[in-house]
Amino acid sequence: MAGINLHSGTAVPLDIANVDTDQIIPKQFLTAVTRKGYGKHLFHDWRYLDLHEQEPNPDFALNKPEYKNASILLTRQNFGCGSSREHAPWSLADYGFSAVIAPSFADIFYANSVNNQFLPICLTNAEVDALFAAVKADPQTQIDLNLTEQSVSCDGQTYHFDIDPVHKNAMIKGLDAIGLTLELDSHIGAYESKMPAWIA
Amino acid sequence: MAKSLFDKVWDAHLVHHDGDDCLIYIDRHLIHEVTTPQAFSGLKEKNRKVRRPDKTFATMDHSISTRSLAIDACGPTNALQLRTLAENCQENGIEIYPVGHQKQGIIHVIAPELGLILPGMTVVCGDSHTATHGAFGALAFGIGTSQVEHVFASQTLKQGKSKSMKVQVDGKLGLGVTAKDIILAIIGKIGHAGATAHVIEYCGSAIEALTMEERMTICNMTIEAGAKAGLIAPDQNTIDYLQGREKAPTGADWDAAVAYWQTLKSDEGAHFDTEVSLKAEDIKPQVTWGTNPGQVVAVDELVPTPESMPNDVEKTSCINALKYMDLKAGQKLSDISVNNVFIGSCTNSRIEDLRAAAKVAGLGHVAAGVTAIVVPGSGQVKLQAEAEGLDKIFIDAGFEWRLPGCSMCLGMNDDILQPGDRCASTSNRNFEGRQGRGARTHLVSPAMAAAAAIHGRFVDVRQLGEA
Ligand code: SF4
C-alpha cells in the first residue's frame, strides 16, 4: 500500500462529538464483500434526505458548496466510537478524505485507520477549537499535515501531534504489516511449541 | 512486582517484543459474515493461508433472518455474504455453525456456550462486543478487518499494551436491579469514552456475586465505555460453568487448566492507572434517554437539561440527542411511551435474560399498539427456553418468538424500525439510526423491556412486586 507523509488541503468542519461508526457508514452498506465503493454512502443518514441518496441534505457540512473539495475532516471528541467495522475508514478514504483531526478517537477506529494509511490526528481541544474557528471563518483555509514532523500547520500556527512511532513508520512507508509479522515466524512457532496442552 | 490479571494474561501471550511494540499470540479467533470477506480475499491475493484453522470458529449471525432459516430470506446481497463465509470456511478448514445448525447463534453467545472461551486466553473477533468474553478472565477484544487478516495469517497481533482501570462494585443489588443496570450505571458515571485506551478489570463483592451470564452482560458493554476489553477474575462460578462443556478440556488437561486458572487474579497491590468504585445499593434500574449509552439515568429520574451538562461539547450533544429522541428536558421517564420492544442481542439474549423477561411478561399482555419481539441468542438458548415453556409465556402475552440472530440490535436483516418508532431495547447501542433510520432506542434490562411492552411506557420494575 502507498504510504502517507505530507498532505495539504482544506477541511470540512463536522461539529459533532461522539460520531459513531453507525453514522459514518450505516449497517445496510456492510453487506458488501469488497473494500471499495463505500464513499458514496459515507454519513448516509445525515448526508441525504432520502433513502436512495438522491436528495442531499443542504444543511449537512459535507454538502455545502464551500466544503465540497475538502480532503481533511475536522471533528470533535471520541470520533469513530461504536463498532469495529473497518468500513468506517474505508468509506472516509473512498470519499476522498486523507486525514481526520479530532481531540480523541475510539481505539478500534484509530487502529483501523492506521492500518489503511488513513491519518487520524489527535490535537488538544483548544487546538481543535482554533482550527474550527479558522475553517468556519474561511473555508478555503489551507491546512498542511506533515507526518514525519508530526505537525499540523494552518494560518501561521503549527501544532504538534503525538503518534506511536511504530504506527508512524508503518504509515509513512505503507508497510505490509502481515509480511513483517511473518518474518517472525520462528518466534511464533517457538511460542506454539511451548503452549500447555489445555490451550494448544 | 505485583501483577494485575491483565498483566498476567498479557505476559503469558508475548511472542516477541521490540520496545513497546508487542506481538501477542491469539488463542481464539471468532469470525462472522460481515467483517471477514475482505480479510479472506486479502489472504488469497497474497497467497497466504489461515495458520490455525483449529483456533478459528465461525457462525452466521448479523445478516440473517429471524423468521426463516433460508439463506436467501434477506435478499441477494446478504445471501452472497453468507455464502462467501461458508465457502471461505470450507476452503480453509474452519468449523462453522451456519444458519439452521442447532448450535448457531450470535457469536458472543455461542462461543461461551460451546466452552470455547477459557480463562487466561486471548480472544479476538472482528466485532467490538468481543469484550463479552472477558467475563471468563480472557483478554478479549474487537478488531478491524485488516487485523482479522493478520490473525488469519499469523495467529498473532501487533499491539501496544493498554492502560488499566479498576472498576470496583461492592454491596448487594436491590430487587429488580440487574447486571445490565450495573454496566449502564458504570457507563453513566465514567462516560461513553471514559475508559478509552484502557482495559478494565471489574471486581468487588457485587461482581463476584454475579452468574457467568450476568458477567457476560457486564463485559459485553465494556466497549460502550470506550475500553478495549473488560476482565473479571475466574472463580468457582467460572469453573462450574465450563466443566463438561463441549470444547472445554477434560481429564489431566482440565486439572492442569484449573490449577492455572486459580492463579489468574490481580495480586495485592497491583497497579491500575485509574480506579473507579460504585456501591451496588445505589444502582437503580437504568434507562438511556439519549443517543449514546453514557446518556443514561435511573428510571425514577428526569430527562436531564442541557444546562446540567459538564461542558459545552456535552451540552451540544444533549441538545442534539433530545431533538433526535423527541424528548423534553425535565420529562419524567415514566411518561415516555414506546411502540416497540426488542429483547435480544449479545448483551441480553441468554437463558437467564429470557427467564427474567418471561417472569414480567407473564404478568400481563403486550399493550395495544406495541410490537414486541424476543430473539434468543442461540439455537441452544432457544431450545432451553422452549423446554422451560418460556416461548409459550411470551407468545401468550403477545410477544413474537423468533429464530436466533443479531436481529434488531443493528437491523442488517428486515428487523428494522421505521422513522419515529420508539423502542425499549435490551441491546447495547442507542446510536442515531442504529435500529432503523429516524428510530429512537432506549437501552434497558430484559425485565424493564418486558415491563415496557406490557405497559406501553417505561415503568419501574421494582414496583411490579414480582420482578
Ligand atoms: S447482537 Fe448486536 S452488538 Fe452483538 S454482535 Fe450482533 S450486532 Fe453486534
Number of helices of chain B: 15
Structural class of chain B: alpha/beta
How far apart, in Å, are the first and last alpha carbons of chain B?
A: 46 Å
Radius of gyration of chain A: 19 Å
Dominant shape of chain A: globular
Tally of DSSP helical segments of chain A: 8
Instruction: Sketch the topology of chain A as an H/E string, one letter per element.
Output: EEHHEHEHEHEEEHHH
Note the beta-strand portion of chain A. Answer: 15-25%
Instruction: Give the spatial strand order of the biggest sheet of chain B.
Output: 5-4-3-6-7
Q: In order across it, which strands form the biggest sheet of chain A? A: 1-6-7-8
Distance between the termini of chain A: 34 Å
**Share of helix of chain A, binned:** 25-40%
- Amount of beta strand of chain B: 15-25%
What does this entry look like structurally?
The complex is a heterodimer of chains A (about 200) and B (about 475). Chain A is built from eight helices and eight strands, in the order ββααβαβαβαβββααα. By secondary structure, chain A is of the alpha/beta class. Chain A has a four-stranded antiparallel β-sheet with strand order 1-6-7-8, with helices on one face. In chain A, strands 2-3-4-5 form a four-stranded parallel β-sheet. The radius of gyration of chain A is 19 Å and the shape is globular. The two termini of chain A are about 35 Å apart. Chain B has about 475 residues and is of the alpha/beta class. Chain B has a five-stranded parallel β-sheet. In chain B, strands 17-16-15-18-19 form a five-stranded parallel β-sheet. In chain B, about 30% of the residues lie in helices and about 15% in strands. The chains are: A alpha/beta (about 200), B alpha/beta (about 475). Chains A and B meet through α4, α7 and α8 of A and β2, α2, α3, α5 and α10 of B. The complex binds iron/sulfur cluster. The site of iron/sulfur cluster (SF4) has 13 residues of chain B, from loops.
